[in-house]
Design goal:
By secondary structure, the protein is mostly beta strands. It folds into 2 domains: about 40 residues, no CATH class; about 100 residues, Cadherins (Immunoglobulin-like, Sandwich), CATH 2.60.40. The chain contains 1 helix and 10 strands, in the order ββββββββββα. The strands form 3 sheets. The protein has a 4-stranded mixed sheet, with no helix packed on it. A hairpin with a 5-residue loop joins β7 and β8. The N and C termini lie far apart (about 135 Å). The structure holds calcium ion (3 copies). The site of one calcium ion has 8 residues, from loops.
Amino acid sequence: MLSHYQTYSHCQHVMWCLSYNDYVRVTKNKYKYLQILLTIHDINDHDPVFHCKSPFVVHISESVPPGVEYALPAAVDGDSRHFAVSRYVLGSKTPQSSPFQLVMRRKPDRSVDVRLVVDRPLDRETTSNYRLTLTAFDSGSPPRSASVQVAVVVLDVNDNRPTFEFPKIGNDHVVSFTVINQLMSLFQVKTP
Ligand SMILES: [Ca+2]
Ligand SMILES: [Ca+2]
Ligand SMILES: [Ca+2]
């Protein structure tokens, strides 16, 4: 009878290792130590998943200088490390070219830090929001993927002076000048 066993998870490419250890009776007075190691190999049967609302909204002031970073959501994957998320791609649905870059850093605990980096100066008066798509790919062949929408809202700062707008000269003004000219003519006639 095998009554003692141990389990190990995520041993490199193996999802589960089960080790059975026990003594089995061979003859009436003879026992033999038996160890059975079962390994269950992983396959890429899970998609990456983003556990956040879509769109994921990021507010960025138009005054931030290039280089400033903002945290983006990371995807999780139920498979072993061999088939987990390995890369991210940032796409843009905004007609204007995206002023953002994507940076991915592996942390000591093997989790990933995904960051949106401001690559060029922003101007709210030119573009006040950006619609981006963050896609996570795992290491399978072919890779499985998941996407989340990222909405960047550019916040206003007081970076514009007040300016005067001069009215265009249209028909109304032509009429006014005409009336003034007529009045001045009359005045000149009546003046001795
Ligand atoms: Ca996977
Ligand atoms: Ca501006
Ligand atoms: Ca502004």
